[in-house]
Amino acid sequence: MGGSLRAVALFPRNVVIAVLNGYRLLISPLYGDVCRYHPSCSAYSLRAVQVHGVLRGGFLTGRRLVRCHPWATGGIDDVPEPEHRTTTTTAHGFVVQGS
Predict the structure, then answer these.
(1) Does residue 34 sit in helix, strand or coil?
(2) Handedness of CA 70, 56, 47, 24 (dihedral sign)
(3) Which residue, 76, 86, 88, 92, could crosslink 98 as a Cys pair with Cβ 3.0–4.6 Å?
(4) What local confidence, expressed as pLDDT, does residue 8 receive?
(5) Is-contact 49 13, C-beta < 8 A?
(6) C-alpha pair distances (Å), 80 with each of 49, 57, 68, 77, 87
(7) pLDDT of res. 33
(8) Which residues is 76 bridged to in the sheet?
(9) Dihedral (C-alpha) 20, 38, 54, 26: value to the nearest 10 degrees?
(10) In this structure, are strands 75-76 and 87-89 parallel, antiparallel, or unpaired?
(11) Beta strands 95-97 and 87-89, pairing class
(12) Residue 4: is it exposed, middle or buried by C-beta count within 10 angstroms (0-12/13-18/19+)?
């Protein structure tokens, strides 16, 4: 896939990342530290979308949210790393082409 085409393909992922960052900045602090897992559900979601993209990251996030309830034992639940990564995460959390 060409460089500019790849950048266009990353656009939806970066839009979702911007929405998640907005949630983490504006809404998440209102709830306080209530997540039973580490990282928090919003941090997990952000990392899942950064690493796996909107579809797989969304699936992983949904699976995590179903497990997160008042009776969950919680614990450490990191996002699984992909076998091959073709993107890089910037200091601001957005995804760009690279390895």
Answers:
(1) coil
(2) negative
(3) 88
(4) 85
(5) yes
(6) 11, 10, 17, 9, 15
(7) 81
(8) 38
(9) -10
(10) unpaired
(11) antiparallel
(12) exposed
Its pTM stands at 0.88
Distances (CA, A) of 62 to 1, 82, 88: 29, 18, 24
pLDDT per position in the chain (99 positions), as tens? 566 777 788 999 999 999 999 999 999 999 888 888 999 999 999 999 999 999 999 999 999 999 988 898 989 999 999 888 888 888 888 988 875
pLDDT for position 99: 58
25: tokens are: 């900045």
- The token pair at 95 is 């995804």
- Name the residue with tokens 């790393």: 81
Amino acid at 52: H
